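Re: Re: ligand-bound prediction request (bumping)

Still looking for help on this. To restate: I need the protein modeled with IPE bound, output as structure tokens. Inputs repeated here so nobody has to scroll up.
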Amino acid sequence: MVEDKRQLPRHIAIIMDGNGRWARQNGRRRIAGHRAGVTATRTVVETCADRGIDILTLFAFSSENWKRPPDEVTGLMSLFVEVLRNEVDSLHENGVRLNFIGDRDQLPRGLRLGLGEAEQKTIGNERMQLVLALAYGGRWDIVQAAQRVAVAVSKGELDANTVDEAALNKYMSLGGIPDPDLLIRTGGERRISNFLLWDIAYTELYFTDTLWPEFDSTDLDAALKFFADRERRYGKTGEQVAVRTEFSA
Ligand code: IPE
Ligand code: IPE
Ligand code: MG
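Reply:
Sorry for the wait, this slipped through. Here it is.
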């Protein structure tokens, strides 16, 4: 386990992939895989809070996942409503603040309302922030930010010449939140699948073959160890970064 808190990521993002394959391997229907995924999610949320992670962003449903068979989509939406109903009180008791990113308008009304209520209820919590990405796409996010910038410019609230990275960032879904330090993808694929595109410019990427329903605190600790061993250079040389570390130590 990584003991030095300075070596831990402040913000972890996870692409929770592999539920369908887990179900097939176990002779179950795909939705049973998603249910098993909820158990893994609970463990990971608890472990992250326990390890002192500040922000955890989970990719639960992408803009492109609407293209799945209707019964899987409906099953997933019902599952999200059920999970919210069952888990919000315990998250609240544990000091977790819940936020949601994604295209709210696309979600069924019941889920949209449940998410809004959970956000309101947990707004004052400070132990850990849990961000759920639902009906979310990295390109959708950049487009909605660009649209809102355009509106602000047309209303005269923003000068187009002052739109720089920091200005655009304020309009991104994770605007007020520091970029993820570590991105984990389970399920063996080594791609981003339209998750956070803007925000992961300098994020460390960790891929594991473990299917999401089987991912547990030992796997999380392996990812944290991987992260602790990285040297983050942000375009500088290794020597520059090493000197800075010595001075700030
Ligand atoms: C990830 O698991 C969960 C969602 C995308 C909702 P998958 O359902 O993509 O699982 P695989 O990739 O088919 O195994
Ligand atoms: C990414 O997984 C989306 C989520 C985990 C929510 P997918 O299973 O949809 O990704 P692809 O289709 O394999 O790229
Ligand atoms: Mg998948």
